DNA sequence: CGGAGAATTGACAAGCATCAATCGAGGTGG
DNA sequence: CCACCTCGATTGATGCTTGTCAATTCTCCG
């Protein structure tokens, strides 16, 4: 991992064919795809391989992105090599829209993914011209901050078991599947760096859950939730 | 603490008399006061006593605020009473502008403070009409997210000593004083809940720093940094 | 089939939380 | 003006969760 940001293929594309990830706010059902529709003309479809870096912390923020397919991790890394995964992005999520002049985190592809790239200039223009678009970006950013605060609680006050339970339920929820089948594109190392614990602890807790019969591991990154109630009990409130 | 949100005095006011907290971005020196100037006419000056709640998590977000004087803590609290301090606000900071329909944290006065209250409706209107204002709110929000990610690194990868050193230097920096005199309006409990550690640990680490001669405690909430280099050494990189 | 990276499992140590008691400061009332 | 009272801060002793180190096993691909 950590190769140069080498894009495999770049070809123009619209958002028309994207699968529509509707946001789940109660007040108004604002479709992400429709909200950033005006940007479609300015977009370039690019593909990124697993482990590749889309941009690095400190880079000049010249582009905004929308993840069309795949998963991305937002990472802050320290001088000694340790890394903190700030967020996982899934298909439909926006990337870089809430950034100032420089990216304050790196973005890396968890697995092969394709995304739309928009020039920041075009985005800035649209932000002042299209109030619906601007409102949507504000909402998305607010939700990001909300998630960050949520995870502070997790990191400060929750045990290893609670964190893993939270993570599994959260991943199950974001997939929207009710049968409890979870696909974990990221490695255990990523999970550990996301939840603020050692990779061995992740492994151990998952092992406990397997023994308890709460989950079944179908393959390395495919897990099925068998006893959702048990997981929710471990997770606790929030 | 945790009394009803009872405002002591509410009288109309403008921002003219506010001391101007200029933001320290490199690209453009955007004054917060000037940026939200258009809101001045809609503002109401209110006073809140130490420990009082300005609004609670889950409340309908009907107002935005600007802290004129004093300190505020943003708090998320759990069912068992444990609390996570997400952020400390100082004079000049905005509050509630990045919120969706509901506040996703509570805001409590660390000490007696006065703040300007603006109706959310007016803010929303201004957000679509005044592009400078909108841009400023975006910047502030982005900076908030940036700080949240920064603290995730702190909470996940830093020791107690590193956290306290970071906190002291951060508080010294935000005051803008070079002589190293820090005023800590919040209690040790607040600090502990902010840094994700036990109150006793806060006390112990501060005691170590005192013995090392890195700091001098002039009073309970007034600390002087004597050996800034030592603190920065402990803190490590960012 | 074989190799390399990732995941698992075990043993051990340590940092920090927890419990408990004492100390200190600030504010009130006599 | 001083004593007292209460809340917060400090200091000490102890245990536990979790990180670290190390070895083995597993899985995915070529």
Describe the protein's architecture and organization.
Two copies of one chain form a homodimer. Chain A is an alpha+beta fold and 238 residues long. In chain A, 37% of the residues lie in helices and 24% in strands. Chain A has seven helices and twelve strands. Chain A has helices at 32-35, 120-129, 131-157, 160-175, 188-195, 199-212, 228-235, and strands at 10-12, 44-48, 53-55, 63-69, 72-77, 83-89, 94-95, 106-109, 113-119, 181-183, 215-219, 222-225. A five-stranded antiparallel sheet of chain A has the order 1-2-9-4-7. In chain A, helix 2 (120-129) crosses helix 3 (131-157), helix 4 crosses helix 7 and helix 5 (188-195) crosses helix 6 (199-212). The longest helix of chain A is centred in the middle third of the chain and has 27 residues, at 131-157. Chain A is globular. The interface between A and B is large, with 44 and 44 residues. Chain A binds a DNA duplex (30 and 30 nucleotides) through helix 6.
Per-chain topology:
Two copies of one chain form a homodimer.
Chain A: E1 10-12, H1 32-35, E2 44-48, E3 53-55, E4 63-69, E5 72-77, E6 83-89, E7 94-95, E8 106-109, E9 113-119, H2 120-129, H3 131-157, H4 160-175, E10 181-183, H5 188-195, H6 199-212, E11 215-219, E12 222-225, H7 228-235
Antiparallel strand pairs in A: 1-2, 2-9, 3-8, 4-7, 4-9, 5-6, 5-8, 10-12, 11-12
The first copy, chain A, binds a DNA duplex (30 and 30 nucleotides) through helix 6.
């Amino acid at each position: 991992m950590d190769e140069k940001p080498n894009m495999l293929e770049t070809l123009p594309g619209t958002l028309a064919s994207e699968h529509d990830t509707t946001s789940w706010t109660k007040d108004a059902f604002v479709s992400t795809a429709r909200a950033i529709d005006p940007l479609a003309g300015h977009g370039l479809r690019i593909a990124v391989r697993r482990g590749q870096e889309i941009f690095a912390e400190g880079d000049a923020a010249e582009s905004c992105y929308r993840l069309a397919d795949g998963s991305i991790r937002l990472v802050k890394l320290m001088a000694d090599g340790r890394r903190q995964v700030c967020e996982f992005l899934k298909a439909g999520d926006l990337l870089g829209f809430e950034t100032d002049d420089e990216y304050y985190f790196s973005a890396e592809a968890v697995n092969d993914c394709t995304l739309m790239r928009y020039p920041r200039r075009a985005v800035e223009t649209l932000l002042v011209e299209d109030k619906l678009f601007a409102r949507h970006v504000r909402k998305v950013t607010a939700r990001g901050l909300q998630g960050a605060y949520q995870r502070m609680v997790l990191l400060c006050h929750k045990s290893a078991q609670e964190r893993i339970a939270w993570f599994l339920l959260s991943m199950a929820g974001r997939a929207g599947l009710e049968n409890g089948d979870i696909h974990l594109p990221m490695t255990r190392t990523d999970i550990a760096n996301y939840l603020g614990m050692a990779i061995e602890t992740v492994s151990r807790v998952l092992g406990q859950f397997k023994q308890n019969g709460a989950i079944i591991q179908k393959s390395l990154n495919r897990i099925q939730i068998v006893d959702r109630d048990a997981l929710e009990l471990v997770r606790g409130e929030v």
